[in-house]
Amino acid sequence: MMGKIKIGLIQASHAIEGTASVEVHKEAAIQKHIAMVREAAAKGAQIIGLQEVFYGPYFCTEQSPKWYASAEQVPEGPTTQRFQALAKELGVVIILPVYEVEGIASYYNTAAVIDADGSYLGKYRKHHIPHVEAGEGTNGFWEKYYFKPGNLGYPVFDTAYARVGVYICYDRHFPEGARLLGLAGAEIVFNPSATVAGTSEYLWKLEQPAHAVANGYYVAAINRVGVETPWNMGEFYGQSYLVDPRGKMVAIGSRDQDEVIIGEMDTEVIREVRNVWQFYRDRRPETYEHLVHL
Q: What average pLDDT does the segment 51-65 reach?
């Protein structure tokens, strides 16, 4: 849609003790991220992405019904509406990952997409839900306890600045959805994450640059930082980055600091790469039918 667009990625620690109330967690994280969104906008960011379930700890480390109380409706919930007002005030697009509840007991790992005029464009629900041990003791990525698999497909959103897709954390291990986002016309795909050292760090800078190259778009990969107590599952290792369709790192954050990372995407690079590497032209979907067999 445009030529050069500034992208803001927000990586942050969450220092509130896990035993605190849900309300304390949410308000502290929301206030922190509002300040960081303002910082990103002041640095020129036009599209700003937050980390997975940004308004609290990565509570999936444990299995406790306490955290169901943190879920909200999207877009009717107060957090989405609060950030709609902020997006309108600052004239920025916001990718807002939250814990969503629908109906009486359907829960999803969701990201709302808010346009630069504050309008709600839609949402993406995480499709691939892990349930694996990590760290010591009973720690793990126990997400099947909290989330149903996404059921809204792989939408792409026409924002004021670019065509945006969303893929959340564990989704990044699955190339099929990444390709569908490209086929739908995504120019940039945001992947808000919460992942720790010792589990998937060696893949962090491999998979998503590969998605960017294979599909001819930018990827904005976001990871939180720090160690969250009392679980101490491991270190969230940050290193949020923007990678271009050639697989080149445009901007990357630190390993352990709260940080607003600013990178620039160029839609001309997307067009150049797609013209040189004709992966979409040379696809053979008629030979892939076994991919969808259960």
A: 97
Per-residue confidence (pLDDT) for residue 137, from 0 to 100: 82
264 catalytically annotated: no
Q: Which helix (H) or strand (E) holds 133?
A: strand 131-133
H/E stretch holding 214: helix 207-215
Per-residue model confidence as pLDDT tens digits over 153-212? 999 999 999 999 999 999 999 999 999 999 999 999 999 999 999 878 999 999 999 999
pLDDT for res 180: 98
* Residue 126: active-site member: yes
Active site (annotated) includes residue 60: no
Q: Is the pLDDT of residue 70 over 90?
A: yes
Q: 35: which residues sit within 8 A by CB, 6+ positions away?
A: none
Report residue 288 as tokens.
Answer: 């892939």
C-alpha to C-alpha distance for 112 and 184, rounded to whole angstroms = 18
pLDDT at 294 (0 to 100): 72
The set of long-range contacts for 101-105, using a CB threshold of 8 Å and a minimum separation of 24, is 101/68, 101/71, 101/72, 101/73, 102/73
Q: Which of 26, 52, 60, 123 is catalytic?
A: 52
Q: Of the listed 126, 143, 228, 259, which one is catalytic?
A: 126
Closest CA to 95 of 152, 29, 53, 50: 50
3 secondary structure, DSSP code: S
SS3 231: coil
Helix (H/G/I), strand (E/B), else coil: 144: helix
The tokens describing 205, both together, are 């800078």
Please give the structure tokens belonging to residue 291: 């991919």
Of 155, 156, 73, 168, the C-alpha closest to 126 is 168
- Average pLDDT over every residue of 229-234: 93
Alpha-carbon gap, residue 285 to 294, rounded angstroms: 17
